[in-house]
Amino acid sequence: MSEATVADTRRLNSKPQDLTDAYGPPSNFLEIDVYDPQTIGVGRNRFTTYEVRMKTNLPIFKMKESCVRRRYSDFEWLKNELERDSKIVVPPLPGKALKRQLPFRGDEGIFEESFIEERRAGLEQFINRIAGHPLAQNERCLHMFLQEESIDRNYIPGKV
Amino acid sequence: MSFFGFGQTAEIDIVLNDAETRKKAEHKTEDGKKDKYFLFYDGETVSGKVNVTLKTPGKRLEHYGIKIEFVGQIELYYDRGNHHEFVSLVKDLARPGELTQSQTFDFEFTHVEKPYESYTGQNVKLRYFLRATVSRRLNDISKEMDIVVQTLCTYPELNSSIKMEVGIEDCLHIEFEYNKSKYHLRDVIVGKIYFLLVRIKIKHMEINIIKRETTGTGPSVYHENDTIAKYEIMDGAPVRGESIPIRLFLAGYELTPTMRDINKKFSVRYYLNLVLIDEEERRYFKQQEITLWRKGDIVRRSMSQQASIAAQRFEGSNSETASAQAKEESN
């Protein structure tokens, strides 16, 4: 009985990959865009809404395509719901910019174009990060946020 | 130590008989430095000489006895006062009396049991050493010499592969396989990761070797985790049906054999950690324990070769007839 001096490093056998799997669309398609900011209302009752459009092939989402309008406070609501109900570490939202809401500013405050763009980008990053999280995908609040016309703040929280 | 220059003192020196031929092994000290020490295996005899050299020639050295000890002990860093000796042998070299001149004493610890491997870790140290002591009224003179012990194993009889399907429901399913469950320290980990379902956006995948040192028992148990190796095995997003190979050479890393419950004081275990990282830096991982063992360098001679060597040592016999006889016996 002699000892082998060179280890066998040949690859383990594996199944050849099915070509439809290799070249077909991936099963992890998920894209969310936050765009088209619109400022609604007049004077002190103005607020900005954004269009949140989702395209996906993940089976957990009922609709493969959806399009809703949301405002900053809706994003805040989603963040709070997830922080309370899910075990995930929720990423930060772009700032609340309270300073910008004070009077006597030289610019448009929270309706300043550059600020809205900054906020839009931050919200897009936030929602993409959340929606891709396997644990967040189980929460009803996320599905309601992305795919229902309006958010029912009296909903019953729970898992999908 | 002598008070005010009076009195005699001595220097002790321990020299092994086979210092010229015995191999040395590198071993990390507690502060991270690497030093070389004589290497011993279980059952080997430890023999040598103790040189006691008088500092001031002409003056006599009164003593209460000279002895040499062979000690194997475990030291827990959080309990430094208590040394747990699992091997303790003593040889008396001189009865109480006096030395008028420098003297050399022979010693031999025959076929000493060295059941565990030398280990210097984060919270525990296992070491073997020789300690020669000249006992005196006020203060002893002693000298320690550390040695390193390695424990060798032969190829395990049973060495099944590790194959498992793991994942997150409806999200990510993989099947991983490692070719063995027991690897020697210069072995190669050959494996593969097969993707059954990929609904997350994976950015890359790596395999880590984690060393976990566990010290203490009962309520005070300390775990020290240390990532010894990080090796990226995939860059990019896989899809269903894809198979990613693994080939990880262990010789390049600082590893010790797996040590389980050594003298009921500590354990050192190793784990392979497969980590997948997605586009949002989320980490998905699966840890799997592997057993590491030390393979001997000694090449085993064939039976007939061993027999002819034994025959040649046989006094008074013709070497030709002896080896012919040995060949016949071995067939």
From TrEMBL, chain A:
<dbReference type="GO" id="GO:0034499">
    <property type="term" value="P:late endosome to Golgi transport"/>
</dbReference>
<keyword id="KW-0813">Transport</keyword>
<feature type="region of interest" description="Disordered">
    <location>
        <begin position="1"/>
        <end position="24"/>
    </location>
</feature>
<dbReference type="InterPro" id="IPR001683">
    <property type="entry name" value="PX_dom"/>
</dbReference>
<dbReference type="GO" id="GO:0030904">
    <property type="term" value="C:retromer complex"/>
</dbReference>
<dbReference type="GO" id="GO:0015031">
    <property type="term" value="P:protein transport"/>
</dbReference>
<dbReference type="GO" id="GO:0051246">
    <property type="term" value="P:regulation of protein metabolic process"/>
</dbReference>
<dbReference type="InterPro" id="IPR051074">
    <property type="entry name" value="Sorting_Nexin"/>
</dbReference>
<keyword id="KW-0446">Lipid-binding</keyword>
<dbReference type="InterPro" id="IPR036871">
    <property type="entry name" value="PX_dom_sf"/>
</dbReference>
<keyword id="KW-0653">Protein transport</keyword>
<dbReference type="Pfam" id="PF00787">
    <property type="entry name" value="PX"/>
</dbReference>
<feature type="domain" description="PX">
    <location>
        <begin position="28"/>
        <end position="152"/>
    </location>
</feature>
<comment type="similarity">
    <text>Belongs to the sorting nexin family.</text>
</comment>
<dbReference type="GO" id="GO:0032266">
    <property type="term" value="F:phosphatidylinositol-3-phosphate binding"/>
</dbReference>
<dbReference type="GO" id="GO:0051223">
    <property type="term" value="P:regulation of protein transport"/>
</dbReference>
<keyword id="KW-0007">Acetylation</keyword>
<keyword id="KW-0597">Phosphoprotein</keyword>
<dbReference type="GO" id="GO:0031901">
    <property type="term" value="C:early endosome membrane"/>
</dbReference>
<protein>
    <submittedName>
        <fullName>Sorting nexin-12-like isoform X2</fullName>
    </submittedName>
</protein>
<dbReference type="GO" id="GO:0032456">
    <property type="term" value="P:endocytic recycling"/>
</dbReference>
UniProtKB/TrEMBL annotation, chain B:
<feature type="compositionally biased region" description="Polar residues">
    <location>
        <begin position="310"/>
        <end position="324"/>
    </location>
</feature>
<keyword id="KW-0653">Protein transport</keyword>
<dbReference type="Pfam" id="PF03643">
    <property type="entry name" value="Vps26"/>
</dbReference>
<protein>
    <submittedName>
        <fullName>Vacuolar protein sorting-associated protein 26B</fullName>
    </submittedName>
</protein>
<feature type="region of interest" description="Disordered">
    <location>
        <begin position="310"/>
        <end position="331"/>
    </location>
</feature>
<dbReference type="GO" id="GO:0006886">
    <property type="term" value="P:intracellular protein transport"/>
</dbReference>
<keyword id="KW-0813">Transport</keyword>
<dbReference type="InterPro" id="IPR028934">
    <property type="entry name" value="Vps26-related"/>
</dbReference>
<comment type="similarity">
    <text>Belongs to the VPS26 family.</text>
</comment>
<dbReference type="InterPro" id="IPR014752">
    <property type="entry name" value="Arrestin-like_C"/>
</dbReference>
